[in-house]
Amino acid sequence: MATLYDIPTYQDPPASSLVEVPIIRYLEQDEKTFSFRILRAMTRAFMRAVYRQLMQPRDRRVGVESCTSYTGACARKARLQYEGAEAEKLMARPRLKFFVGDIIELSMVGLAQLAGVQLIDNNRDLSITGRDGVRVPVHPDGRVVTPEGVSYNVEVKSADTHTFDAWLAQGGPDDTWGYLTQASVEIAAWREAGIPVSHTVFVAVSTGSRQGSIAEWLVPYDPALVAAWHDRRAVAHGPTVPPIPFTPDPETSFLRSKTLQAEWLVHGDPVGRKDKNGNIYGYDVPTGRLKVPTYCSYCAYRSTQCWTTAQMDMDGSRPVWVVPGTNEEGP
């Protein structure tokens, strides 16, 4: 028998913003409504976030599965985390980053509710059933219910300047960090709970130079992303630890010059950068070195389990992890 999980349900896009505009209007109006009920709910959610981030850090959740365990592109990471493999010590900066991200996202949920948005079920206990019958926990940021009774999944993310600007330019998030997969898996969990949902209201808040900016996109359910989630989970629990799914990235250095220099050709062909008039003003020149893939550079297993020979170098003021040697295939 077909279920809500199997059958995509179509919904007409809303006529206006579901979260972004109501929050902006609320913040800009002189007379604001207030609710102690909403404040108490925000306080409870804040306490849960503090306990989870400080008392149950990610690197200690051995044998624990969640929706986000498999939303990223690396099944190897999921397996290492599940088994409690040796990881790099999580330092203060990333811990604070996770903590601040949680608080920002919780604040947006509370602001939306104060603005009159019917945003309910924050962090509700849901699950998605794996192919092996195991129910994997899913905790969405919430669900918006319109006056017409239509439900939308809600996903709130804080983003740095580069990411926020990229999303604005391309009309919404991509799946580089698994955010689109997470949204579709959450919709699958809503459907398993008997609630028909077909879209996610994806809300982004900038924490960089655009700090305080907010944007919203309506992201449709994608069954292919859910299928890939199940595939990664199956690989992660296979008989062997999955291989690294990425290869090193050739490093380039930008050199400003209108003229191509012969010595820049030693390690490959430079690529010219053009201004708005189509004139070359500099070149991205291969250095002959290989960088740890961007996805891996933020992983706690980068140097303990995977890229064990990588060394940190500086690209201006930005640290990069470089694989020693030239044209290596992997670690």
Walk me through this protein's architecture:
The chain is α+β, with helices and mostly antiparallel strands and 331 residues long. The chain has two domains: 20-236, Alpha-Beta Complex (Lambda Exonuclease, Chain A), CATH 3.90.320.10; 249-323, no CATH class. 33% of the residues lie in helices and 22% in strands. It has helices at 20-28, 36-55, 75-83, 92-114, 161-170, 179-192, 223-236, 294-297, 302-306; strands at residues 119-120, 126-129, 135-138, 142-145, 151-159, 197-206, 214-220, 249-255, 271-274, 280-291, 311-315, 318-323. The protein has a five-stranded mixed β-sheet with strand order 1-4-5-6-7. Strand 11 (311-315) and strand 12 form a beta hairpin. Helix 2 (36-55) runs antiparallel to helix 4, helix 3 (75-83) crosses helix 7 (223-236) and helix 6 packs across helix 7. The radius of gyration is 22 Å and the shape is globular. The model is unreliable at 1-10 and 326-331 (pLDDT under 50).
**In total, how many beta strands?**
12
Largest sheet descriptor: 5 strands, mixed
Calculate Rg over CA atoms: 22 Å
Q: How many domains, in number, for the residues?
A: 2
Q: Order of strands side by side in the largest beta sheet?
A: 1-4-5-6-7
Please count the helical segments. Answer: 9
The poorly predicted ranges are 1-10, 326-331
CATH architecture title of the largest domain? Alpha-Beta Complex
CATH class of the largest domain: Alpha Beta
- What is the string of helix and strand elements? HHHHEEEEEHHEEHEEEHHEE
Distance between the termini: 48 Å
Name the shape in a single word.
Answer: globular
Q: Pairing-aware structural class of the strands and helices?
A: alpha+beta
